[in-house]
Write a structure and sequence with these properties.
Length: 411
């Protein structure tokens, strides 16, 4: 079989496969979140916090790193999640909705609006007071949860809505990664950063020499993780770098990027992200904490940023890109669909909690921020679902699946 034909068929199914796995992953994430909330609120028990704050040492002597279990999950295990994000971005840049300037303009501008407006609203509410370091919390969109909501809505919305949401969310991830790299790193060591650059250079040399075995890249990835960790830049960004370095073409007779995405994505969707939620979503609800949260500008800054900031930012910037001819909406998508997508963009669970931990560590501010994220994400999910259900599909409009398979219309 012609490898190019195989490549084209893989790219043709990559989007639908991705959506299906994200939807199922969103369900797993929801279950893990509920378990974490129940576990953390068992009366008279401190087992949740004790379990995740148990310290673990990896290495030996001067070559060891000690952190609690939650920290290892957030800094170590989440590297695999960011690797998949890097693969997804690379796929979209190579063959997806971001591979041409005109196609990329609309989701790019929509995502920029969905980042800037929430930050502005957050700053207006919180100012320079307590919690100001969490300004980036409401800028993130959780792809898994958002796509899971679309999966529940099913055929009642156009297929183009899924394309639009996915494209904006992927660009949103890229912007969040840049913010983490620039604003949530401290005390950067030039020497360790130079060592990391050498590791990246070795990856490029191995690619040039045609090395196709996976284990040398895994070994270099582990070394690069330590180098970036020691440099002061958040170590999970190693995953993004290696994802973007993965070749998009045929390597050794197979489509390496697609194969890696198909093999690793289930692990991140059904293990990494649910474990992250288990370790981080457990808010211990108490009357004093709820009272402090309601009185906190941080709590309201996050909610307003997610619910209103995302809606205004994505809708406005998307409208401007269409108005000035910079991009066009997918087929069958109208203004009310864009508003619904913008509202779903306010589901900021995973990356928002990730940024919360970077901002405040383990403190009362972290718990208040998590409450704001939970409330804002639930409100955004409900508002987006109602908006999209109200928008519906044009009479007689078929989804992509229905157009390819007429029998799907009767299912």
């Amino acid at each position: 079989m012609d490898p190019r034909a195989t490549s084209e068929s893989r790219w043709a199914t990559a989007g639908p496969d991705f959506l299906r796995s994200e939807a199922a992953g969103g369900a797993a994430l929801l279950v893990a979140t509920v378990i974490a909330l129940i576990w953390a609120n068992i009366p008279g028990d401190n087992g949740y916090l004790d379990f995740w704050h148990h310290e673990i040492t990896l290495g030996w002597g001067d070559f060891s790193i000690t952190h609690d279990l939650q920290h290892w999950i957030n800094d170590g295990l989440m590297t695999l999640f960011f690797f998949v994000v890097g693969l997804e971005v690379k796929r979209e840049l190579a063959e997806g909705e971001l591979n041409e300037p005109r196609k990329a303009a609309l989701p790019f501008l929509g995502a920029v609006g969905g980042v800037l407006v929430p930050i502005v609203l957050f700053k207006l509410i919180v100012g320079n007071g307590t919690g100001a370091d969490g300004w980036a919390i409401p800028m993130a969109t959780d792809i898994a949860f958002a796509v899971a909501v679309l999966a529940v809505l099913g055929k009642r919305i156009p297929a183009g809505v899924r394309i639009l949401l996915l494209s904006i969310a992927i660009v949103d991830d890229v912007l969040a990664i840049l913010v983490i790299a620039v604003f949530y790193s401290s005390g950067v060591s030039v020497a360790w950063l130079a060592a990391f650059a050498v590791s990246i250079g070795l990856v490029l040399i191995m690619r040039k020499l045609g090395v196709v075995r996976i284990w040398p890249y895994v070994l270099l990835g582990l070394i690069a993780w330590v180098e970036l960790y020691e440099s002061g830049i958040h170590a999970t960004l190693v995953g993004v770098a290696f994802g973007l370095l993965t070749p998009a073409g045929i390597v050794g007779g197979r489509h390496l990027l697609s194969d890696l995405e198909h093999s690793i994505h289930p692990w991140t969707g059904f293990f990494v992200i649910p474990v992250f939620a288990l370790a981080n979503a457990g808010i211990v609800f108490s009357a004093p904490l709820i009272s402090d949260a309601v009185a906190s500008s941080l709590f309201w800054g996050i909610i307003v940023g997610l619910v209103f900031g995302k809606t205004i930012g994505i809708s406005l910037f998307t409208w401007l890109s269409v108005r000035f001819g910079l991009g066009s909406l997918p087929e069958g998508v109208k203004a009310s669909h864009v508003a619904g997508v913008a509202m779903l963009g306010g589901i900021g669970f995973t990356v928002s909690i990730f940024i919360t931990q970077l901002s405040f560590g383990n403190s009362e501010l972290t718990e208040i921020a998590k409450m704001g994220i939970l409330a804002g994400s639930i409100a955004s999910a409900i508002a987006g679902s109602v908006m999209l259900l109200g928008a519906g599909k044009e009479p007689g409009q078929l989804s992509v699946a229905e157009a390819r398979d007429p029998s799907a219309q009767d299912s």
